[in-house]
Each structure stands twice: as C-alpha cells, then as structure tokens.
Amino acid sequence: MADRSLRGIRLGAQSLQSEEGVVFMERQQTSYSCDTCGHVTTLMFAADAEPPATWECRNCGAEARLQIDGKSVEVEDNSDKTARTHWDMLLERRTRAELEELLEERLAFIRARRGAGEDPTRERIGA
Fold it and tell me: At which positions is Zn(2+) bound (predicted)?
C-alpha cells in the first residue's frame, strides 16, 4: 500500500486516471462564417452528428452560417409558421360548446361562492 500512498500529492489539482485504453470518438471539424463581422468559428462535432445550419458568432453575437467546401449553406426560413395560442390548444382538445358549458359551470360556482344572493342590508367592505 505504501507505493500508492496519496501523501504529498495535491489532491484535486491532478487526476489519478490515465488515458490508457481510451478510444476517442471520430470527429469532424465544422466551420461557421459570420456575414456581419466576417469572423470564422471552427467547432468539432462527432462524425455521425449532423451539425446545425447556424451558430452564434463569438465576436458579434450575430448568426453565422455553416460552411461546406468553402460555401455557405442556405438556411431555410420557417417564419411562415405561426405560434399556437392557449385558445388554439384548447380548441384542439374541446369543442366550443364544451368550453361554453365549462365556463357556465365555473361562473355558477364562483357566483355561489361569492354569495351572489346576499342580504342587501349587509354592508360590503372594500370595493
């Protein structure tokens, strides 16, 4: 046990593991060029991974486009897709008649809880 003693080593500053038997994954080098500042960003991805078409430029923060064989890849414009609202998602699950029925049930519950038929002589505090 004396030959593996930790005495005198800076714990946390050095790793006790070696790189023996470690097989690294195949990698590909990918370049992105920024049209705004002209900066080229080079990143490494796994060989079987599909790199994204755009990447944020490290210099100016603008959108940099993927370079393949020295040419920029055309980015598809998906701006025609509109965002779904809460109302759209509700209509996917229920019909309008069901929603109106649920609304009436809920309003009746709230009115009953508030005491819509209260004694008119009772003074209200607040609003």
Answer: 34, 39, 57, 60
Enumerate the known binding-site residues for Zn(2+).
34, 39, 57, 60
- Whole-number Å distance between alpha carbons of 33 and 108: 61
Instruction: Summarize pLDDT for 10-54 with one digit per residue, the tens.
Output: 666 677 778 888 888 899 999 999 988 888 999 999 999 999 988
pLDDT of residue 107: 94
- DSSP of 7-24: TTS-BTTB-S---TT--P
DSSP string, the chain: -GGG--TTS-BTTB-S---TT--PPPEEEEEEEETTT--EEEEEEETTSPPPSEEE-TTT--EEEEEETTEEPPPP--TTSPPPPHHHHHHHHS-HHHHHHHHHHHHHHHHHHHTTT--TTSPPP--
Binding site as annotated, residues: 34, 39, 57, 60
What's phi and psi for 66, nearest 5 deg? Answer: -65, 135
